[in-house]
Amino acid sequence: MKRRNLFKVVSAVAASAAFGLSLGAQAQDKVIKVGTVAGPDAQVWQVVQKVAKEKQGLNVKVIEFNDYVQPNAALDSGDLDANSFQHQPYLDSQVKQRGYKIVSAGLTYISPIGVYSKKYKSLKDLPEGAKLAVPNDPSNENRALLLLQAQGVIKLKAGAGTGGNNATVLDVASNPKKLKLTELDAAQLPRVLGDVDAAVINTNYAIAANLQPTKDAIALESLTSPYANLIAVRAQDKNQPWVKKLVAAYQSPEVKDYINKQFKGSMVPSF
Fold this sequence. Notes:
Protein name: Lipoprotein
Keywords: Lipoprotein, Membrane, Palmitate, Signal
Structural class: alpha/beta
Number of domains: 2
CATH class of the largest domain: Alpha Beta
Number of helices: 9
Number of strands: 14
CATH superfamily of the largest domain: Periplasmic binding protein-like II
Signal peptide: 1-27
CATH architecture of the largest domain: 3-Layer(aba) Sandwich
GO cellular component, one term: membrane
Helix content: 25-40%
CATH topology of the largest domain: D-Maltodextrin-Binding Protein, domain 2
Membrane topology: Lipid-anchor
Radius of gyration: 24 Å
């Protein structure tokens, strides 16, 4: 009887161990589906995919979308495990509008909006009454004014520019140098740079005008600005081990080097 019982115990332990190994293998074989948008984001994720496999033992499948609506819907429904294409203000608006249970897991990169000038090398050099042009569309004007506030050039009214409340020049509460803030179409700003003292220009328009953000801007958004892009996951998954591995793969030296070399300042790592 004792031998039979011992045999049963040993058999049970062996079966349990085998089952545990099977579960471990299944966990390692899990494919993490990441949604992103076609173009530069997808290019970067091809590098992340390789790093995740080689350095983190994580199998990543990249799924490309052609709009900014489907990736969050697919993540919330469980069709994706993560997505990577948006910044925090956009995510916040989607969560508010659609009730998604989605959160940020880590930052990726920023296409920094910057202040450019053909006359001055620093915002501190701007004289009293200088003419400073900003984009006139709500999102980018808000972003421009937040940058100027962060640089100490102006101060906005309490609550302006945050919590979904886009600021305009009418929300400027303090303007020590009495700067003349002029609202213009974002695409026109590089063309009028010679006619104003400075202008706040989006990266895509700056690059098209042969301006390199990291070299030519006299002020740039912080790399941890709310407008830095991020990796999003469902709230219930935020503390899962695979999430940490996925973020670590993106925030690796290999990916940072790729972004810096490939995009030459139009995309800047936020890590």
